[in-house]
Amino acid sequence: MKALRMTLMVVAVIALAGSAMAQNTVYADATAAMNGTNFGLVLDLDGTTSNAFVEDQSPADETVYRATFWFDPNDLSMSNADKFVIFVARTSAFKNVLRLQFNYNSGNYRVRLQVLKNNEAWADCRLNGDSGLRFMTIGNEPTQITVETVFAASATAYAGVTANGTTHYKDSYQSANWAVDRVRMGGPRMPQAQGGPFTGTVYFDEFESYRTLAP
Amino acid sequence: MNRKAFRCTALATALLAASLVSAQTTQPGDAIDIEVFNPADGSNAFCVAPSGTVDARVFVRPGIDTLSCILSCSGPSVPGGSANIATAVIDLGFDPAALTYVNGSISSNAASTAVQGLPQEQNVADNRIGWALAGSWSTPGDPSSALLSPCDMQMVTTADWLFGMQFQATGTGMTTLRLRKETDAQPFALSFADICGTEAFKSTNGGIDEIRNAVVMVSSDCNDVIFFDNFGTGDFERWSEASGS
User: Model confidence over B53-89: pLDDT tens digits?
Assistant: First the structure.
C-alpha cells in the first residue's frame, strides 16, 4: 500500500512537472517558409493558454503604422467561431489599440481587424467601412496580410486590413489618443481568444513595417 | 530619460560602436563565430531600393583557445587552435531572383593581411559566392607569388571582416544572404583549420558555434521602414523580445 502511494505520488509529481512545462511556443523553421524564403516563424499550439509571440519594439509612438506579413493557417484544428489574436499593436503604456483576430467559421479561416477608439470601445473594420462583412476569408494557404492605421481625429483616422486584393476598413472615429510603440505577432491569447483549446501549428513569414500607409 | 529616449541613445551608441570596431553581436569563446553584416550599421539586415546595391561583408571572430604545436619547419612551438586560423572555406548562397552578384573584395586591414584569402567566383552561376584561405602569399596580396611556409605565414587571429560582396537588387521582397553549412539540404563544408593539424573547426563538431545570416529587403520605401524580418537568420534574434521560445 505504501509502495502504491509512493508510486502515485511520483506519477503525480511527474504529471505536475509536465503540465508546468507545457506551453505554446514560437520558433523559426524551414517548414514555415513562405513566398520563397528559407525560414518562417512557427506558432506551435499545444492546447494551453500561454502567450507565444515575437515582439518588435522599434515603433516610436507611430501615429501612422503599417505592417505586412505572410500567414498560413496550416490546417489548424479549430471549432466553429473559435478565434484568437495573431497580431496586436500596443501603446507605450501597453494598451492594445489594434488587433487582428484569426477565426474559423463554417469551414473557412477568416481574419478581422479591430481598432480601439478614444472612448476605449473596439470598432470593426468592415468591407464597406461602417457596413458590410466584418470577417474576411483568407483560405487555408499562405496569404499576405497588410494591416494599417492612422491614429488621429475623426476626419483622418483610419484602420484597414487587406488580403487577396480585398480591404476591410474603418474611418470617421476618434483615436488621436493612441500611437503604436510595439507590436506582437503570435497567439493564442495575446490579448484575447475565444474557444479552443488550440492544438497545431500556424506559420508567419516576411514581416515588414512602415510609418506610412500603403502606396 | 524616458524609455524611448534611452532606447534611441542606446541604439545610436550601439550603431556607432559597430561602425567603429565592426564588433558584431558575437562574443569571444572557444569556438569560431561567423556572420554576414551590413558595414553601414553593423546589423544583419539591409533595406535597398530596387536596382540599388548591397555591400555585405563576412565577419569572423576566431576562438580563444591556446593550443600550440611544434612543426618541422620550426623549433619553438607555434600557436594553433581556433584562435589562429590558417585555412578556411566559406560559401554564401544568394537568391538570383532578388540579387545579382556584382563583385567581391577582401579586407585591406594591414594588421590581418595574412587574411589573403580570395573570393571564389566560379560558382556564381549556381548562386554561390565563396572565399578561401590557404595561407599567406610571399608578396602580400599577389596570388601569383609563392605561399609562405606554415612557420612564416600569418593567421587570422583577430575578429574582423574577411571578405565583402556587392550585389545589385534585381527583384523585390525579402531574401537572405545565407552562409552555407554542413547541415544544409545541399551541404557545404564550412570550416576553418589551424596549422597544428587538429581536426577542422566545423559547426557539426562545435568548432563554429555561431553562424548568422543577413536579411535583405528590396523596397522602394526604405526611408519609411521601421522593421523587417524573414527569419532567414534561422531564429528571431532581430526581434526585441519573444515569449514561448
Answer: 999 999 999 999 888 888 887 667 888 999 999 889 9
The H-assigned helical ranges of chain A are 2-21
Residues of A with CB under 8 A from a CB of B: 23-28, 32, 35-41, 50-62, 65, 92, 181-182, 186, 190, 205-212, 215
State the pTM of this model: 0.81
- Does residue B193 have a pLDDT over 60? yes
- Residue B108, pLDDT above cutoff 70: no
Q: What is the number of residues in chain B?
A: 245
Q: How far is CA B156 from the centre of its chain?
A: 13
The CATH code that applies to domain A25-210 is 2.60.120.200
Residue B63 and residue B136 in contact, taking contact as beta carbons nearer than 8 Å:
no
A108-116 and A122-124 as β-strands: parallel, antiparallel, unpaired? antiparallel
- pLDDT for residue B143 is more than 80: no
Which grid cell is B61? 571572430
CATH number (2.60.40.680, 2.30.42.10, 3.40.630.30, 3.40.50.300) of B24-222 reads 2.60.40.680
ipTM of the complex: 0.89
Strand bridging mode A143-150 / A64-72: antiparallel
Best of B239, B241, B245 to disrupt the A interface by mutation (most A CBs within 10 Å)? B239
